[in-house]
Amino acid sequence: MILHPDTSLFLLGKNGIFQSSLTMGELLDEERDEDGFLYLCYLAR
User: Fold this and answer.
1) Considering its fold, how many domains does the chain have in total?
2) Which InterPro entries match (predicted)?
């Protein structure tokens, strides 16, 4: 996926939109599924 400079990227998990200040490690710790994987949806606007 190519994002232009004026495009925002949002990551969504089972509890909603994440804070943009979180690292991927923090997301993994908070949102990891029982099987150990991190399931995300994304939205570019």
Assistant:
1) 1
2) Atg8-like (IPR004241), Ubiquitin-like_domsf (IPR029071)
